[in-house]
Amino acid sequence: MASSSSSNFSSDHLPEAVLQTLGLAILERVGTGDTFRLIGNQPAWWASTFEASPELPIAAGTLSPFLQHFLVDCEAAWRGDQDNMMRSGPWAHRDLASDLHQFEATALTASHRPLLLIERIDERFGQIQTLLQQARDQRLHHIDQVKTHERTQTSLTGSLAIATQERDDLLALLQHLDLAAIVTNQEGCVTFISPRCLAWIECPSTTVIGQPWEQSLPLDSADRKHLRQTWDALTPQHGRCPLRLTSKTPRWIDYEIHADPQSSERRIILLHDRTEVHHLRQQLDHQTQFHDLVGRSPAMLQIYQLVRDVARVDSTVLIEGETGTGKELIARALHYSSPRKDRPFIAANCAGLTDSLLGSQLFGHKRGAFTGAIDDHHGLFESADGGTLFLDEIGDIPTSVQTSLLRVLQEKEITRLGETRPRKVNVRILAATHHNLNEDVIRGTFRADLLYRIRVARIHLPPLRDRRDDIPLLVQVLLGQVCATTGKAITDLHPDSLRLLMTYSWPGNVRELKSAVEFAVISARTTCLMPSDFPEELRHTQRDHRPPASQESHHAEPKAQLLRALQQAQGNRTEAAKLLGISRATLYRRLLAHHIDVVE
Amino acid sequence: MIQKKICLLGGFAVGKTSLVRRFVTGMFSELYQTTIGVTIEKKALVVDGRDVTLMIWDLYGEDDFQNMRESYLRGSAGYILVADGMRQSTLNTAEALHQLAQSTLGPVPFVLMVNKADQFKEWEIDEATLTRLRHKGWLVTTGSAKTGDGVPELFVQLTQKLLEAD
Question: Reduced to 3 states, what is the DSSP secondary structure of residue A83?
Answer without folding.
Answer: coil
